[in-house]
Amino acid sequence: MDELFARADFITLHTPLTNETRDILNAAAFAKMKKGVRIINCARGGLIVEADLKVALEAGQVAAVALDVFAVEPAKENALFGMENVVVTPHLGASTNEAQENVALQIAEQISDFLLDGAVTNAVNVPSVSADEAPRLTPYMRLAEQLGSLAGQLLTSGIKGVTVEFHGEASTINTRPVTAAALTGLLKHALEEVNMVSAPVVAKERNIKIAELKRDTAVDYHTLVSLTVETDTGAQTFQGTLVGATLPRIVKLDNVPLEAELGQHMLFIRNLDKPGFIGALGGLLGDAGVNIATFHLGRSAPGAEAVLLTEVDQPIPAAVLDKVRKLPQVVEARALEF
Length: 338
Prior knowledge:
Elements lengths: L1 H6 L2 E4 L13 H6 L4 E5 L8 H10 L2 E6 L18 E3 L8 H21 L16 H21 L4 E10 L6 H13 L10 H8 L3 E7 L7 E9 L2 E10 L3 E7 L2 E5 L4 E8 L4 H11 L4 E8 L5 E8 L5 H8 L4 E8 L1
Parallel strand pairs: 1-2, 2-3, 3-4, 5-6
Antiparallel strand pairs: 5-7, 7-8, 8-9, 9-10, 11-13, 11-14, 12-13
């Protein structure tokens, strides 16, 4: 920086305003510059100590300055206004006809890219996705949102942390959009309005710690996404994979291995692994006119606690769900929607 100050005839500023850059051009900096230097600041107000700049201008150390930004904006009054060697614009230096035409063209091109290919570029509040990445990411994002939605509907206590792990082929993708999709699914059942833009922000506001891990080992599947949610009562893990590179499948539910495809209406049951339970459940649902579409079972060990995830053709009435909960082997039963 000192070498730049000593050599430069023109100094232009192109930096954000941070604790490190605030007041970067001050009396000490001006003293190191060549006499007659010219300065342009179209970046941020606050990079220059304006009182020190006025002194340097009056002394001829700085020959002239052009400013588009100021320490206090809107800049209705400023000690630099009216000086013959000062040119100012009201934070509109980029608003030329050419710039506005280029911005319009870029917006149209980016919206077209998103609608045709799913590409997201230059967004300030969502992860960027290239046109090449979009087709590959779409099934992973669907899988991640399903994992998050499943966890969000099953958790019973406050969320303290979320860890999203990518194994095997999944570790090679652009993971930020996938993590955002998982958070969206996780939080949408507790909040009225949450999406991929707001979900990471909402999680941060609620002091939910977010972590991403990539592991190139494939474990039991060539590609695997794992969502671990830490709550006030412990941690629960939900895992999923892709079948045929596009079809999401759940392969672990609440730490229990289970392979299932999620449909619109699902019934989740945690039950004791006892003989007769499946028959009793099927009979109950049949008597109520609830048709079973798919049926998936998992257990941690023979005779231990088991989980069941079944798709049904219509929403389960509250009265039927209450009867399911009263079956002697049932520990917990919930109707889920996807």
